[in-house]
Amino acid sequence: MSAPLTGHTVRVLVGAEPKRVLTREVPEVRVSLEGVVGDRHAGLTRKADVRTPWFPRGALVRNSRQVSLVSTEELALIASALEVLRVQASWLGANLELSGVPRLTRLPPGTRLFFPEDAVLMMEGENTPCRKAGRAVEPFYPERQALASRFVKAAHQRRGLVGWVERPGLIRPGDAVRVLLPPPVTYSLP
Amino acid sequence: MSAPLTGHTVRVLVGAEPKRVLTREVPEVRVSLEGVVGDRHAGLTRKADVRTPWFPRGALVRNSRQVSLVSTEELALIASALEVLRVQASWLGANLELSGVPRLTRLPPGTRLFFPEDAVLMMEGENTPCRKAGRAVEPFYPERQALASRFVKAAHQRRGLVGWVERPGLIRPGDAVRVLLPPPVTYSLP
Questions:
Q1: How many other CB atoms are there within 10 angstroms of residue B137's CB atom?
Q2: Residues forming a β-bridge with A25
Q3: What is the CATH number of the domain that holds A41?
Q4: Which member of B102, B125, B182 has the closest CB to residue A189?
Q5: CA nearest B181 in A: which residue?
């Protein structure tokens, strides 16, 4: 084990409206085994969609995409690649913005994030950037061309992670985050 | 993508008794989002124990250890290392015995197993061998010494996997299994 990997919570957000990407900053979020309480992605199950092509579309499966996380540093890199002043966590529908964890988006599936008030989040994997998230950025820079399509490349390996709640609790801005990587496993055929 | 990784289901088992390791072979198992219906490890939550030292003991966390899987080939290797005739899936409390998937225990976390009647299982990781499982083997070879403690080494990287149900369904002996490995991710500090 090397030095512990840590960061801190910059802001916490909830997306209450069913059809909108946008989330809204709040003073704290409660996470249950269903996800962020009050968020549109909360639920023990979800319907399989384009992100899970191995299931029939619409099949009810366990929800491993309850929570969306981005990092301050990676948002700045996306903004820089798009040549805009900033890209905000709320525009991308994130529930948590963290800072200080290097290459947040590259944390492997199975990584756990520990928060001081009990909450533990398990990372499912990278949130691959799509044009829908890109379109959510466009209204903030109406003078810029083709932001939605440029977003996919600009946000490559920077758009953050999705995951699920492993242990319920509270998360607030300023909370320290401790990162526990899973044991590395390499599978090769004999 | 190389050739698809496949195997088949040799037997399915349920452990109905709360305190016993042993499982019992049945003609089919139904898996729900809680796990194997009727099995003592089923449930959306579990209490944190010695296997999850990063939680306070007894904390209620999401149950990712609903289902236990072993492979015919690895059971034979364990038996050979213990110098006994056989080690049965039921003795180790497994819910599924698969055959034909090379190095089952080494499949990485995030691996999905697809069964023909809808069921999809997500692998959480290796089921590290413990003396408790070893003690469950002892009664079948009363003349052999120290099987429980030798089991831990004999079953190293051979004791199978645990995981959770991602999609409900039915699983029966003879069912084909399709294995989908997760995308490999390497995390390194900048």
A1: 24
A2: A13
A3: 2.40.33.20
A4: B102
A5: A187
